[in-house]
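Because discrete structure vocabularies remain unfamiliar, we first show an illustrative case, written as a sequence plus integers encoding its fold.
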Amino acid sequence: MRVAGLLLCYLAGVFASGALLAPGLFHLAQWAAGEFPTLQNLASQPFHRYVNRSLLVVALAGLWPLLRALDLAGLRALGLVSPLAARRPLALGLVLGFGSLLLAAVLMALAGVRSFGFSHSVPVLLQLLASATLSAAVVALLEEILFRGVVFGALRRAWPRWPALLASAVLYSAVHFLARVEHTGLVEWDSGLALLPRMARGIAAPEALFPHALTLILGGVALGLACLRTGNLWFAIGLHAGWVFWLKVFKTVTAPGAGEGGAFWGTDKLLDGWLACVVMVGVVAVVARLPQTQPPEEAT
């Protein structure tokens, strides 16, 4: 249980340290804006955004000590081989990720739940595409390094393959349901800590768990299987990037249709209906049939 204990300590440390760091960063920004007016936009950001950014900063800062403790130091240990050598699995993953959610979007359009519309100006669409592409690349790279490279990589060394795969997929799904909460009143030293329980309530919200959470768990399973089948992260990174791209553009390039959404079709979130869950089952099936290019490391 050493690996699980280290991961739990890391997560607890990230949330506690990030919550304690956020008030200091908030007050530092207020002071800096008084000295440098160009920083007014930064200082005007709501406090919960400082909490989110603090959690990210602490998570990145604590990653290297965690990797050392888990004996995962080095890019190859995380599954990051040369992207040039892995350009084919990266491209195939991107096609599967992009195509799977495109299929869901097209089916929603055919059912009349959503309709594609490109009424926006060319500059707006180009800006949207550029922003979505950048977000897809950054989010996919960071989340795959953390959840598949670190979490799954560590668990599969200590646990049997399927328990490690499911545990990492459940954690991956859970963090996406941290509620977005706002802070009112003065920002005190413990204001960040006070937000954490409210953020955690999103994980237990029944309306969010099914099928949305199940869809993300299946997505986590597909991403982990991709790492096992290919021996590196690049197929998973491409797959993840294709999903993120559609999640960023779907609401803008489509509009509500004449038909009703309901539990099966979902909403403009794209992943909150049973249709997306069915599509994700198909993705898992496709990934499971990838040729085994490198024997995965087994638990010891």
The longest strand covers residues 114-116.
